[in-house]
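Lab notebook: predicted structure, single chain.

Context: the supervisor wants predicted structures on file for every construct in the current expression panel, including those that have not yet been purified. This is the next one on the list. No modifications to the sequence; it matches the entry in the shared construct table.
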Amino acid sequence: MFKKLINFIFLLDERPINRYKSLNRNIVIIMLLITIIPLTCMVIINNFQFKTHLRDQIMDPLYSMAEKSRHTFELFMDQQLSIIRFISNTYSLANLGNELTIQKILTSLKKEHYGFVDIGLIDPKGDLVSYAGPYSLLGKNYSQQTAFQETRVKGQYISNVFLGHRKYPHIVIAVEIVKNDGQSWVLRATVDTSFFDKLISGMGLERNSDVFLVNSKGIFQTNSLYYGDTLEKCPLELPGKSFKSQGIETKDNKNQDIIIVSAGFAIADYILVIIQPQSVALKSWHALKTKMGIIFFISLAIILFTIIKMTGILIKRIKTSDEHRENVLTELQHAQKLSSIGRLAAGIAHEINNPLAIINEKAGLMMDLIDLSKDFDQKSKFHELTLSITTSVDRCRKITHRLLGFSKRIDFKIEPIQINTIIHEVIEFLEKDIFYRRLEINLNLSDTLKPIFSDHGQIQQVLLNLLTNAFAAVQDGLGRVEIKTTNHENKGISIKITDNGCGIPKKIIENIFDPFFTTKKEKGTGLGLSISYGIITKLGGEIFVDSKLGEGSIFTIILPEKPNEMEIKNGNPEN
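Prediction complete. Output recorded below exactly as produced.
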């Protein structure tokens, strides 16, 4: 089939003159199919992959937010429960039964802790024998209430939100007091639920998003912005209760596409629910989809124009050759074929570069518009995103270069570098990990540190590997990492990375630079330190480690002012 098509295009024997129109049409159709089908497939596949990746990036922060927020709620509840348990262990039943004593306890609670409304002591029969608070509840019997019964069974209890005699939302926290004679008393307190609303408002979700608490039966424990008020039934189909964050994509009662992420509490019958409209979550996807559509149609128009123009030129030359050089038809056809292939190859190569050039130009224009515009919300975020686009374009160029030279040896790029600047770059790259883990980073960087000749990217990779290992060795909230730079006595520089982590046992410290040796089990590959050691050695430097188990580790890097002669030959800084 393909051979017949070639003969039809290039073997121009005696045929009707309208064969040129047919030939022109066939070439245009074939070239359009050859160029448009792969381009269309690429756009469709990229759209699908980007949307899938974007959904993962959207869900992961929501899962993280749900876990952290649930943890905050549970800490608050556990704190209130611990306070009541402390009171029950500190005061005797006689003191708790004294009206003046329990009133002093409530006054102290209101001063020192948020949310306590009243407190009372219930005897084994369920009668409230001692009470301090704004209501007349003394003598009330609680023997038939769930709070009293479950407290005697479990030893402690945190209720769902309910109205009760107070006619406003509150929860009950109760602990059991067992006397020496085996009788079981209950100390209960009422806590205001307005703290729930404060925790929810502090989560900082985007507009149109919603956060609320429900119990395992789907009853609202806090007000929802869009789906109901406290103690109403939630109209949405929520994921089942799980102590691990889980999410689903569904529609709400207004037929709006939404994402629901939930996390169940272990300490009480509560489920934290986060709802975000997909239109908000995927707004970056829709924006990119529009831009990609514009780029696609522009590229399509350029391809169509180029094919028609080149095909017209080709057909005109073939026609002229038929009329004036019939005797050398075979040689001329061969020359035209080579010329066509060269032009088509040049055109295709040009078109491949067009999307990158357009992306770079549009990103530059966006950055200029952002810089010239007035301050607005997320301006710095937009600036960072635009900068990442231009960085990605440069990265594409580097990747192309690396792919073209895949079979060749890629030498180090030796150039003047400032180690302090590279350290700041690596710290900025890790700043989110530092923030979320609450690590203390001390930078003791010499102001008189002299520049050296080395490879910027390779040094950056080494520092990233060492800092990542240091972060893995320290505890969240207690970790401390110090980075110190000094001028070395042998005309080079010294970098010390010190952590207060778990340290390295002496029996394995000699093997940490061996390939595939790791102490992280399934979390590590054992290549980070090995690669770092190889890079530093090739750059003419040295790397040492000093560690004490339980106290921390110190990694020292010594880099020369210039690499050795072999490495300078590969990338001479003086050329």
